Amino acid sequence: MTPLSFLSANELADLIHRREISSLDLTGHFIRRIEQFDDEINAVVVRDFDRALAAAAQADKKLAGGDTIGPLHGVPVTVKDAFDVSGLATTWGIPSLKENIADTDAEAVRRLKRAGAVLLGKTNVPFALGDLQAYNEHYGVTNNPWDRSRSPGGSSGGSAAALAAGFSALELGSDMGGSIRMPAHCCGLYGHKPTWGIVPVQGHGLPGMVAPLDMGVPGPMARHVEDLELAMDVLIGPHVLDQGGWQLQLPRPAKKSIEEYRVAIWPDHEVAPVDVEISDRVVTIGETLAELGAHISDKALPDIDFKNSQSTYLNLMWSLTMSGATDEQYQTARQLADAIPADDMSDAAVTARARVLCHRDWLHHNNQREQMRFAWQAFFDEWDILICPVFAVPAFAHDHSPIQKRTLEINDEPHAYLQSMFWAGVSTLPYLPSTVFPSGLSKQGLPIGLQAIGAGYDDYTTIHFAKLLTERIGGFQIPPAYESK
């Protein structure tokens, strides 16, 4: 029997609706769990327990009066620190923003509350969301519940750790460089990076930042795949400024069984090698799907030069990071970029130049992206799903050395720390949806997640595929240290 702390949001909402547990009791249960165990994880770094208890009591009062708020009525959730929550600090892991108290809720947070969710607090992130780990000088280091000597990933690392340890029922994360998907992989969870533009980003930004960032998307993280669909039902819709002019109705899955799916398998790539255990897992999933009757190919890929795709992704992504830079910071970045030889096309060199990218060059890269989007569209005319790695290795040991000096051991060889962001960029660059699902454990007993990428706006299809696959291979497993807690 699944412990209360690890039930799905759907199950908890049903228990509340049938009055088998009150929202107040359930909220109290999660609060006690956080207070008891989060000292060793450090995931829920901003706690809003008094307001959560008040909201839970109000949810119970409404239910007793025959009224319900929505599909998450009374269900306790947490959200990533990058989202504004009225009355709480939004720091992005930047110590100088510890007094940056939000006046209003981010639109995605507002939609969760409108659906009845009870907000317990906010979860930890790296400095300026700019790392594959989750630590900062203000809130400290977040540990992975599977092995506290390892990182839960980033930037939605606190989000993943909170879910894996059973601190909340559902989490709101965000993703541009794999920030939902990589932590989901590291902690054995489900995560969904939506098609760009279908979940409003209003209220997810540094002070003064109101324009949506290219490629960045809010999205749900969960222990149970069906909760991703529930969360997307709640979250999708137009940006606040667009509500008067357009509506969004995503297509529902046309296929009913795994046998109907056409699936391409992509285990590895020379641009960003992955640990053999992960590439083997992709192959194994392909073999399982073939045995189940799905149409499988290990050769099919879009007609794209993926080395060029990676360069385009890095240019467009890292150019965003200087949008809030001071003149002094920009000039320092400019001098660094100018000092790099023109023929140096390494990821580090591309990244340095991207930080000071001129608008003319940005338009060039954006045009290249549009060409790639057409190539992806042609690919998904023939295939429904592409399965590939999320990241090169399972959860790795904490490493707080200067980021440019870090490496990751991949098949016993050192590789650049950020090289594996290639796998995030595969779907981020062309705005495609991607659902991460747990595929089992490594030989070291660490989770391995894979991603199912689909055509633009086929978000429910990638989630549906992950649900069908979960029925055959299993899903989330409780970290051993927390099975009896």
Explain what you see.
The chain has 485 residues and is α/β, with parallel strands linked by helices. Helices cover 35% and strands 14% of the residues. The strands form three sheets. An eleven-stranded mixed beta sheet has the order 1-3-2-6-8-7-14-15-11-9-10, with helices on both faces. A two-stranded antiparallel sheet has the order 4-5. Strands 12-13 form a two-stranded antiparallel sheet. α2 runs antiparallel to α3 (49-64) and α10 runs antiparallel to α11 (347-354).
Question: Topology of this protein?
Answer:
Elements: H1 9-17, H2 23-37, E1 44-47, H3 49-64, E2 76-80, H4 107-114, E3 118-123, E4 135-136, E5 140-141, H5 157-164, E6 171-175, H6 181-187, E7 190-193, E8 217-222, H7 225-235, E9 262-265, H8 276-291, E10 295-297, H9 306-318, H10 327-338, H11 347-354, H12 359-382, E11 385-389, E12 407-410, E13 413-416, H13 422-428, E14 434-441, E15 447-453, H14 459-473
Helix pairs in contact: 2-3, 5-6, 7-14, 9-11, 9-12, 9-13, 10-11
Structure characteristics:
eleven-stranded mixed β-sheet, two-stranded antiparallel sheet, 14 helices, globular
